[in-house]
Amino acid sequence: MTADPFLDEVRFDADGLVPAIAQQHDTGEILMMAWMSREALAETLATGRVCYWSRSRQALWRKGDTSGQTQRLVELRLDCDGDAVLVRVDQTGVACHTGRRSCFFRVADGGAWKTDQPVLHDPKALYGHSHG
């Protein structure tokens, strides 16, 4: 038995991660996709502040620690197979490290990717260095 037995229903992959789609709770806007470990998921549920797992840093990633662009948990949903979560959030500011509201700002258009969202915050101002 674990501390959070209902988390046993989440099917984490071989690396102990589950994909997490962040969606703005009131508009339905898809903001980003990230990964959650069991610990990140448990912390998110316990604190109400969304926490992910950073594969590049191999550490918990509390959304907004660096940028101030936080996500407050509104609702957490598990898909039918138990292998993906939908994190319905109240996003403060931008979700994307490029300074855009959403990470899904490129649209397939005639064999090319078209950008359809403006940069709202300079990534250098958010993180101290620029991102793509």
TrEMBL record:
UniProt pathway annotation: Amino-acid biosynthesis; L-histidine biosynthesis; L-histidine from 5-phospho-alpha-D-ribose 1-diphosphate: step 3/9
Annotated residues for binding of Zn(2+): 80, 96, 103
Keywords: Amino-acid biosynthesis, Cytoplasm, Histidine biosynthesis, Hydrolase, Magnesium, Metal-binding, Zinc
GO molecular function, one term: phosphoribosyl-AMP cyclohydrolase activity
UniProt cofactor note: Binds 1 Mg(2+) ion per subunit. Binds 1 zinc ion per subunit.
Cofactor(s), by name: Mg(2+); Zn(2+)
Chief localisation class: cytoplasm
Enzyme class, first EC level, given as a word: hydrolase
Domain Phosphoribosyl-AMP cyclohydrolase stretches: 32-105
Catalysed transformations (reactions): 1-(5-phospho-beta-D-ribosyl)-5'-AMP + H2O = 1-(5-phospho-beta-D-ribosyl)-5-[(5-phospho-beta-D-ribosylamino)methylideneamino]imidazole-4-carboxamide
Pfam families with a match to the protein in the record: PRA-CH
EC number: 3.5.4.19
Subcellular location: Cytoplasm
Binding site for Mg(2+): 79, 81, 83
Residues passing through the membrane, by range: none
Record-linked SUPFAM superfamilies: HisI-like
Family note: Belongs to the PRA-CH family.
Subunit structure: Homodimer.
Protein function: Catalyzes the hydrolysis of the adenine ring of phosphoribosyl-AMP.
This protein's name: Phosphoribosyl-AMP cyclohydrolase
Naturally occurring in which organism (per UniProt): Inquilinus ginsengisoli
